[in-house]
Amino acid sequence: MTKDATALVRSQFGVAASDYATSEVHAKGESLARIVELAAPQHSWRVLDIATGAGHMAAAFAPHVANVVASDITDEMLAQTAKLAADKKLDNIGTAKAEAGALPFEDASFDLVCCRLAAHHFPDLGRFVSEARRVLKENGRFALVDNVAPDAQQLLGASPSEIVDATAAYNTFEKLRDPSHGHAPPPETWIGLLENAGFRIVAREQFGKELDFKSWVTRMRCTPETITELERILVSGPQNLRSFLKPRRDETGALHFTLQELLVIADKIA
């Protein structure tokens, strides 16, 4: 990650650390319990949680393993993780400052590497996957959850070029809300990256994640002008993007929409 990109992520998430600590989407969410279940952690395992944020996934795995290293590039997030571990009396969680594309850990030093709702901020997904594989032990396990862009399953009947356009529109939408957003690819891109890097896919699931628009923009401290533009895109933007995000209003008039989360469990192979 370049110095400018690192600084942008730190500036965006440093001030928002406490919001992510209490965010329902991050603290709970369907994918959190499911990734632990599918990863099938063992009591002897050493775990690395990359871009831990406020530490919710590290805390979810901690009761099932020997120890967890919760890593992040943002000091404020690491402080929130330490607080969460203390509050939950999880004394097997440690924190470390680490960048996803240049992990400061020895080869083959973890049984499980996990990352949840963060990889779309990484500037080089291939490098992230390569680093995760490097620090995994032989037959080690990789567990990923992240937002993904639309594909043919989500946009039935759309042409390949229309899906490419919808993917670009979706990432532009995300980046407008959060300038530190990098790129969220369609699911098959993740599968290809993992298989080409020497992983075997052992589980794959996808979830629709309903979001409240107001809390989504508030968490990232968007300006009123940005909020207006994001709402305009949701309500009257490109048709394929709206088909993917499924905007709707509840009985009070509050705006909601749906993101897609991909969950992948993959084992390191020789």
Automatic annotation (TrEMBL):
Keywords from the named record: Methyltransferase, Transferase
Span of domain Methyltransferase type: 48-143
Transmembrane stretches, start-end: none
Pfam family, one: Methyltransf_11
Origin superkingdom: Bacteria
Keyword Nucleotide-binding applies: no
InterPro entries: Diverse_substrate_MTase, Methyltransf_11, SAM-dependent_MTases_sf
GO-annotated molecular function: S-adenosylmethionine-dependent methyltransferase activity
The keyword Methyltransferase appears for this protein: yes
Biological-process GO terms, alphabetical: methylation
Classification via Gene3D superfamilies: Vaccinia Virus protein VP39
PANTHER family given in the database record: METHYLTRANSF_11 DOMAIN-CONTAINING PROTEIN, METHYLTRANSFERASE TYPE 11 DOMAIN-CONTAINING PROTEIN
Family according to the record: Belongs to the methyltransferase superfamily.
This protein's name: Type 11 methyltransferase
Species the sequence originates in: Hyphomicrobium denitrificans 1NES1
